[in-house]
Design goal:
The protein is of the alpha/beta class. The protein is built from 9 helices and 8 strands. It has a domain of 207 residues: 3-Layer(aba) Sandwich (Aminopeptidase). Helix content is 38%, strand content 16%. Strand 1 and strand 2 form a beta hairpin. Helix 2 crosses helix 4. It binds 1-benzyl-1H-imidazole and zinc ion. The site of 1-benzyl-1H-imidazole (1BN) has 9 residues, from loops.
């Protein structure tokens, strides 16, 4: 054999080997694994994006009104009991599966409260979940007021507004299918604490839930708390604890809100940490939860002129504020599914 012929044969062999190995490498993920007799799965189809539904602010407003109409939702009161039953019925009406987590809590003044955290699960079997939370109780006394300081408050903003946004999101999910798990959690006994006492006197419902999760090893993909999200002139700053535990979630929410035209409500300025349910959720359960809470710094009250006063009634509720928060959270849920966030 001539030198030339043997060289060209070698070249053919090399090209052939290269071709075979390229085909093998390309097809390898789709070939059956040794020892397995099941055929390989085809690659999953790309997800079909879903549209972002509109948040119905008129409905959310009615949900605030309905809670206020029960009377102050102070633990152990008939209004508290009736309102809990109403929440459960509403969530069930929207097809969510509801867990009522009953527990006893000791008030800093000594009373034992019969309390209940309400957990409503949308698509409970899906592993990827978003947790949205709010407190639903209202304060037992108007300690910052000039008059009737020992009487309970309506808590239209401080309590009812966050719960109303969550209920409206439940109604939205029922009408606009999305393949993502969403948990709507209403904490009880958040607002019965001692204004001059330890932070542990607040947030008794979230303290209990954090040590008694409704599911073992529960860990949502994102977790967001709403508090005081319904008043005229609301301002949501990047709260300190939220920035420590989940800065990415804060960033997503504030930039989403700004892209939707709500940058006047979601101000991208930092503010110091606030004792609220998210602190106990992060500490007790290790779940990084952020807090969307209004601190407009009106008068000399960081939480606004109506905070823990009788003026926290329906007259402070502004549909524009509810819309800003409700639409931002709705977009957050559906864009998380879409893989945009
Ligand atoms: C928020 C709304 N908080 C109560 N109502 C939490 C809080 C606790 C705020 C202590 C200030 C002091
Ligand atoms: Zn309060």
């Amino acid at each position: 054999m001539s030198k030339k012929t043997s060289r060209s044969r070698l070249a053919y062999i090399l090209i052939g080997a290269l071709l075979v190995s390229t085909i093998f490498v390309t097809l390898q993920p789709f070939l059956p694994k040794p020892g397995s007799d099941t055929p390989p799965l085809p690659p999953p189809p790309p997800i079909e994006k879903v549209a972002i539904p509109s948040f119905n602010v008129d409905s959310a407003f009615v949900f605030v009104q309905k809670q206020v109409d029960f009377g102050p939702r102070v633990p152990n009161s008939p209004a508290h009991q009736k309102c809990a039953a109403w929440f459960t019925g509403e969530f069930k009406r929207y097809g969510l599966s509801v867990i009522s987590q009953n527990f006893k809590a000791t008030h800093y003044k000594g009373t034992t409260f019969n309390a209940v955290n309400i957990i409503a699960q949308y698509k409970p079997n899906l592993p990827k979940r978003i947790l949205l939370a709010a407190h639903w109780d209202s304060r037992f006394q108007a300690d910052k007021d000039e008059k009737n300081k020992t009487m309970p408050i309506d808590g239209a903003d401080d309590g009812a507004s966050g719960a109303a946004v969550l209920l409206e999101i439940a109604r939205t999910l029922a009408a606009n299918d999305v393949n993502l798990g969403v948990d709507l959690l209403l904490f009880d006994v958040e607002d019965q604490g001692d204004d001059n006492g330890a932070s542990e006197t607040w947030c008794l419902g979230s303290q209990y839930w954090s040590k008694n999760l409704h599911r073992p090893s529960y860990m949502p993909y994102s977790a967001i708390l709403l508090d005081m999200v319904g008043a005229k002139g609301a301002r949501f700053m990047k709260e300190g604890v939220s920035m420590q535990v989940a800065p990415q979630t804060v960033e997503k929410i504030w930039s989403l809100a700004s892209s939707l035209g709500y940058g006047n409500y979601f101000v991208p300025d930092p503010r110091s940490g606030i004792t609220d349910d998210h602190v106990f959720v992060a500490q007790g359960a290790g779940i990084p939860m952020i807090d969307i809470i209004s601190t407009p710094n009106e008068g000399d009250d960081p939480f606004g002129r109506h905070h823990h006063r009788h003026s926290d009634n329906m007259s402070v509720i502004d549909k524009n504020t509810l819309q800003a928060v409700g639409q931002t959270l709705t977009a957050f849920v559906y864009q998380t599914y879409n893989g945009v966030l």
